[in-house]
Design brief:
CATH architecture of the largest domain: Alpha-Beta Barrel
Order of helices and strands: HEHEHHEHEHEHHEHEEHH
CATH class of the largest domain: Alpha Beta
Number of domains: 2
Number of strands: 8
Helix content: 40-55%
Shape: globular
Mean pLDDT: 97
Number of helices: 11
Bound molecules: 3-methyl-2-oxobutanoic acid
CATH topology of the largest domain: TIM Barrel
Largest sheet: 8 strands, parallel, barrel
CATH superfamily of the largest domain: Phosphoenolpyruvate-binding domains
Length: 272
Amino acid sequence: MAGYLVEDTRKVTTHRLIEMKQQGKKIAMLTSYDYTMARIIDGAGVDIILVGDSASNVMAGNWTTLPITIDQMIYHAKSVVRGVQRALVICDMPFGTYQISATDGVTNAIRIMKESHCDALKLEGGEEIIETVKTILAAGIPVCGHLGLTPQSINKFGTYAVRAREKAEAEKLVRDAHLLQEAGCFAIVLEKIPAALTERVCRELTIPIIGIGGGPADGQVLVGQDMLGLNCGFKPKFLRHYANLAETITDAVGQYVADVKSGDFPNENERY
Ligand code: KIV
């Protein structure tokens, strides 16, 4: 492996992320769900690896993030942590593990931290879950917020369209962002909202704002498989493809199949 592509190879902490915002340094975040990919993207210099509950879609083929369980998230997070030296590893709390009560939320949060060894957790929502967020923070667990298009609420929204275009929803989002910062969150992900709203939240808050489909922010996050072109049918406006791995893999596998069938593989040097 080529080794780290960043000058500062110290482990990224929540404290460093806030310093990065103060210094105007952008934060690069990607999702990962397994050891092999986490090792590569950590070595390539991402600052944060998110073990997203998008594993439900990307790894398991579900339509939504709702079905993934706490045991499955712990399995993915543990695998990622083993591959990472530098990046901060955030694990999503899956649907149903923090919405019932603060006590239930902190119990599940402690379990994820203890069993996965990740560095922090991410929860979707603002005012509705603020007591739970405070209880988890009081247990010494760093929390990243997530506002805007929150995929665990997709059945309530009924659409993956841009959120907070209307004034009332935009004002609630800004209030929620302030509440999460005041509670002690170290960062907030803003998903699929108008760029002007992202810009306002970045300006008003001192903690880093990480955007996905929300225009420029203190940092950006994408689903690793999407930006690497493993999921060709998915091309929303906000997504940039940095590779076409689906094509690369198809070509490689096609060549392997041809070589096996022709008897070209294994050759003289590929046997004992
Ligand atoms: O689960 C996930 O991948 C996420 C990102 C889209 C932010 O929450």
